[in-house]
Backbone:
């Protein structure tokens, strides 16, 4: 049997969770938020984010696959807005897809985001709210922004359940909570 994993306790949108800590780089751990299958957290977070996004008047919601899909779906249902999911792999049926490159903290490798040709009309000339589960380095956020701009959309809001890392870096993000980055003792001086 595996040793119990250290966790970080959070309370967000009226829901409490103990998030497992995982090392993503030598001496650097993050609290992992995985909303896939967590209906209670998704519903509560979406309800609260919908209230905070209402005055920004978005016309469409945009996210990157995969973990934030349930959140953007629930927000879409609550707000009565269409949503677009940017894909991480190109498929031939996506036609003349727009693309941008990002670097994710969880994968540690460059990855591309693609806007399916069929979704271009949903973003072009529209006010867009970018939605993610956690915004950490901002790389995925930047990739989404690039695609929205290429598609002729205008970003009116960036929203997430959590921001992570340097709180001051995320003052322009609508978030329900904030997660620290955990450094091991030997790396605390960095």
Residues:
């Amino acid at each position: 049997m595996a040793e119990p994993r250290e966790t970080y306790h959070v309370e967000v949108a009226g829901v409490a969770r103990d998030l497992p800590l995982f090392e993503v780089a030598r001496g650097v751990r993050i609290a992992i938020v995985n909303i896939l299958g967590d209906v209670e957290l998704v519903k509560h977070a979406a309800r609260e984010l919908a209230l905070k996004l209402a005055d920004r008047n978005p016309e469409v919601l945009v996210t990157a696959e995969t973990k934030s899909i349930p959140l953007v779906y629930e927000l879409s249902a609550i707000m009565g807005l269409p949503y677009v999911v940017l894909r991480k792999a190109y498929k031939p049926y996506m036609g003349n897809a727009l693309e941008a490159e990002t670097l994710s903290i969880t994968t540690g490798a460059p990855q591309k985001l693609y806007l399916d040709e069929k979704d271009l009309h949903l973003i072009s000339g529209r006010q867009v709210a970018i939605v993610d589960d956690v915004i950490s380095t901002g790389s995925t956020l930047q990739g989404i922004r690039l695609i929205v701009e290429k598609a002729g959309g205008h970003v009116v809001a960036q929203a997430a359940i959590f921001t992570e890392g340097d709180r001051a870096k995320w003052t322009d993000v609508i978030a329900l909570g904030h997660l620290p980055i955990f450094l091991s003792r030997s790396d605390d001086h960095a």
About this structure: The CA atoms of residues 123 and 148 lie 7 Å apart.
